[in-house]
Amino acid sequence: MLNTYARAFFTRVLTPFAALLLRLGVSPDAVTLVGTGGVMAGALVFYPQGEFFWGTVVITLFVFSDLVDGNMARQLGRASRWGAFLDSTLDRVADAAIFGGIALWYAGGGDDLTLCAVSLFCLASGQVVSYTKARGESIGLPVAVNGLVERAERLVISLVAAGFAGLETFGVPYIEWLLPIALWVVAVGSLVTLGQRVVTVRREAAEADAAARPGETPPQQGNSASPQGEA
Question: Which of 40, 102, 164, 206 is most buried, judged by most C-beta within 10 A?
Fold first, then answer.
């Protein structure tokens, strides 16, 4: 939901910056790699130490690379399959670093195994939510559903809550509870979104199979590209 409106807004805002990078000879792939590296550094250096405010500041500075690199490719007029693959793959890496960093805090100094488990669930469910859409599309289905909590919502909810929770170190009372609440919201929302996508794929697959010509063999389950064959 949020992704549709936020992406359009920030694309307009970041277009001049993307044009500047192109004039400086920077490639879209370089922006993708640097952006992911910055997000990982902010998440895995600051978050495990409980430095949520500064970690979120660093992550926020780099997370917009996800919009800048695509903007640069469009301005160049050479959007590629490789660029789309690299961008999507590194998005998953960045998301895992964010929730992994939070999980490391709760497994260590945060001393809360329940919230550690919730953080890991957010990490895993986010990956699966993305996979369900990609896998559905790979077998020729539109997967025409947005879902309650997509990547943009997961990032905004988690990063805003983490940033404000980090204000505890500046003496703001009780604000540390924002992050646990946000993690539960993301966990439940991701589970709902996963259900929405699975139901949608099931319906679309049934419709596609019913519309198949007589004698046409539908895609077989359990092939090398199926979930069972994924590493």
Answer: 102
